[in-house]
Design goal:
The chain is globular. It folds into 2 domains: 40-60 and 95-408 and 742-751, Rossmann fold, CATH 3.40.50; 466-625 and 632-737, Rossmann fold (3-Layer(aba) Sandwich), CATH 3.40.50.2000. The chain contains 31 helices and 19 strands. The chain has 755 residues and is α/β, with parallel strands linked by helices.
């Protein structure tokens, strides 16, 4: 086999591998992967899934594809024989800037699992040129610049297929790009990405600013362009409609080619609407079916039977509502359909709260999704119950049969085999390779929780992973970290509900305790990775405060031996693959009821970290699976939080004034030490936000967080072997959180693919 691979790769490189540059070998590997992936393409039989999402955070694909195609070991061996390193070649690969946070990473994991399970299912999205943005830090502030990644030799290849898309009376040609999605010992599916040939990155001015009105040149420049003004909000609608209009045309084209007469579309296609960004696919499909001679009433039923909706949040800011006037401007052809859908929904109930178009002439995308799809699912058990009992209760009463839960999951190929190969091999040596395809087999590890030799080896693997992260941080940002400390990591999108500010207040508290002579039980390295949306001022102030505190700590000889704060620049999948295997304590500290699920908690758990978290999202199910002794839970319950919001009587200032430790930590934000390294206006604005607003109830959970985190530090320090034992228990119970399980449930209950 290695001989064959060597010959094929040599042919693709056009020269002996020992004489080829790393760049040439990289291009050769792309061709090899494309060839092998094509061999596993098969025409869909029966129903096929189309997963529409604004984000697909796919990460670097080279090694992941080699693993899934069963070529990783052979290619590594062939390259080593030629004096080459696959790791070095991997560094050449740009990371696709097609997503930002958990929404996009989930979509990527789902595509991997679909292909692994031999289920016909393709993604539909946009080919962003610059992603969200590239993040770096200047003067303690987040700086944004374009995150260019597209190059001539790309996994996403242009096709000759274009679809006309009408936007504001102008017809644009949406070109289809296809990217193969390989499954582990499975089939090859496709990620379909749309773009305009006219998009021109040269219009980007300083930072990431550009003319938001020049649609032909800007449409796919950035993921989530700044929507702090009307032009930015309109651009969001332009983007979303191009994605769903071109996507809907692709779906109908493929289904017709397979024999669909469109009346039976639901027998050929299942469409999953991932959050509200693709919601316009519902009226667009109805419009296209009407154009083909199908009545409105039948078209509505066809689309309802075909589409399903996933809700990812209860935050109102993410449940998109567009002014009718905006839609009139951008998609005038769609608005009549939406108005008819609103009228139809009103025949089903007199409850104005569930209307598609409200009294303020706002179009509620989630409302349209629920009315005119056959399934609405939450993404964790708690989240789904909150949807049914609180946020979407009126809809649940109207359509109880539509509501169901599908707890999120992660692909173990990426988040264990790819990012933690040493741990993977150790697990395989203990329980065999069955867990590669059936993650529940990890439970076999429970028989080794009392084996001293096994625990020693697992502890050694964690130590080496921490050293590898330290080396990477030193190379990437010139930061030196001590590896004998506990590594606490909070890596996720920067948002107040995720409460990086709570972690910040703890670190200030810890700093002040050390200054007072109270040494902690173990040194602590606190690592953050997060991007703040460019227009999200308070989120950027939190970043500034963390970076400022890192300088305070670094320059204080009393404290620096005990504490270190590291903020990783431009957090992405590649960074996550370095950070997650090295983590001791996983920070999952969102305000209870606000995090729908989370998947970072699952990745950390799988790689042997213990969770410090609230009873929020999938933390609830993690806690139930590992037991209360193997997780650190703190803070208010979701019921308590919901009651506090309902009562409207939360006053942050009262908490600030009544708790000396809390007041001390908050006041430190604008104290002499912080102002020495930070900017007064940013520090004061965050302090005022915490005292006078604190929308996500940071202050009531502060003391509980301090107590549990210090308990975790003491446990880590006092009994390292027991810590490793508990980490092993977490790994053993991680199997439930495989995206393979999630996809099997979607298929069983909603999609029925291949039937």
């Amino acid at each position: 086999m290695c001989v064959d691979i060597k010959k094929e790769l040599t042919d693709f490189c056009g020269k002996d591998l020992s004489l080829a540059s790393d760049q040439e070998i990289y291009y050769g590997l792309l061709k090899l992967i494309q060839k092998k992936a094509e061999e596993k393409v098969s025409v869909a039989k029966g129903k096929k899934l189309y997963y529409i999402s604004a984000e697909f955070l796919i990460g670097k694909l080279l090694s992941n594809n080699l693993i899934n195609l069963g070529l990783f070991d052979q290619v590594s061996s062939v390259l080593a024989e030629a004096g080459k390193s696959l790791g070095d070649i991997e560094e050449i690969e740009p990371e696709p800037s097609l997503g930002n946070g958990g929404l996009g990473r989930l979509a990527a994991c789902f595509l991997d699992s679909l292909a692994t399970l031999n289920l016909p299912g393709d993604g539909i999205g946009l080919r962003y040129h610059c992603g969200l943005f590239h993040q770096d830090f200047k003067n303690g502030l987040q700086n944004e610049s374009p995150d260019f990644w597209i190059e001539p030799h790309s996994a996403a290849q242009a096709t000759d297929t274009v679809f006309p898309v009408s936007l504001a009376g102008t017809t644009y040609q949406a070109r289809l790009y296809t990217l193969p999605v390989t499954g582990y010992e499975g089939r090859t599916n496709t990620l379909n990405l749309f773009d305009l040939d006219t998009v021109d990155p040269s219009i980007i001015r300083e930072g990431i600013s550009f003319d938001k009105k020049d649609i032909a040149k800007n449409l796919t420049l950035f993921l989530y362009p700044d929507d702090s003004d009307d032009d930015g909000r309109l651009l969001r609608i332009y983007q979303q409609y191009m994605m769903v209009s071109a996507g809907a045309q692709l779906i109908l084209k493929e289904c017709e080619e397979r024999g669909c007469n469109l009346h039976n579309l639901a027998d050929y296609a299942a469409i999953q609407i991932n959050d509200t960004h693709p919601s316009m696919v519902i009226p667009e499909l109805i419009r296209l079916l009407e154009e083909r001679g199908i009545t409105f009433e039948e078209a509505v039923q066809i689309v309802t039977d075909t589409c399903a909706y996933t809700n990812h949040t209860i935050l109102s800011e993410a449940l998109e509502k567009w002014p009718e006037s905006f839609l009139e401007k951008v998609v005038p052809q769609l608005l009549p359909v939406i108005r008819r859908l609103d009228a139809l929904a009103r025949t089903r109930t007199d409850n104005e709260a569930v209307s598609v178009i409200d009294q303020n002439r706002l179009v509620h995308m989630a409302h349209m999704d629920i009315h005119f799809s056959h399934s609405t699912n939450g993404v964790a058990a708690l989240h789904t119950e909150i949807l049914k009992n609180s946020e979407l209760h009126d809809f649940y009463e109207l359509y109880p049969e539509k509501f169901n839960n599908k707890t999120n999951g992660i692909t173990f190929r990426r988040w264990l085999m790819k990012c933690n190969p040493t741990l993977t091999k150790e697990i395989e040596s203990l329980i065999g390779p069955g867990f590669y395809k059936d993650a529940t087999e990890l439970e076999k590890l429970l028989t080794f929780t009392g084996d001293e030799n096994v625990l020693t080896r697992f502890g050694e693997i964690k130590r080496r992973n921490k050293e590898a992260l330290a080396q990477w941080l030193n190379k990437k940002q010139g930061i030196s970290v001590r590896t004998d400390a506990m590594f606490s990591i909070q890596s996720k999108r920067l948002h107040e509900y995720k409460r990086q500010q709570l972690n910040l207040l703890f670190l200030i508290h810890q700093y002040l305790e050390i200054k007072a002579g109270h040494k902690p039980s173990t040194p602590l390295v606190s690592i953050f990775g997060a991007k703040a949306a460019p227009a999200y001022i308070i989120a950027k102030d939190i970043i500034h405060s963390l970076l400022t505190l890192s300088k305070v700590i670094e320059n204080d000889p009393d404290v620096s031996p005990w504490m270190q704060l590291v903020f990783v620049e431009n957090y992405n999948v590649t960074a996550a693959e370095k950070m997650i295997p090295a983590c001791d304590l996983s920070e999952q500290i969102s305000l209870a009821s606000k995090e729908a699920s989370g998947t970072g908690n699952m990745k950390f758990m799988l790689n042997g970290a213990l969770t410090l978290g609230t009873m929020d999202g999938a933390n609830v199910e993690i806690s139930q699976s590992v037991g209360s002794d193997n997780i650190y839970i703190f803070g208010q319950s979701s019921d308590q939080v919901i009651r506090r919001y309902a009562g409207g009587d939360y006053c942050a200032k009262d908490w600030y004034e009544s708790d000396p430790n809390l007041k001390r930590a908050i006041d430190f934000l604008t104290g002499e030490e912080m102002q020495k390294y930070g900017q007064k206006d940013h520090l004061e604005r965050l302090k005022n936000e915490l005292i006078h607003k604190d929308w996500f109830q940071t202050l009531p959970d502060f003391n509980a967080y301090v107590v549990r985190k210090q308990q975790a530090m003491a446990d880590y320090s006092c009994n390292p072997k027991d810590w490793t034992r508990r980490a092993l228990i977490n790994i053993a119970h991680a199997g439930f959180f495989s995206s393979d399980r999630t996809i099997e449930e979607y298929n069983r209950d909603i999609w029925h693919l291949g039937e």
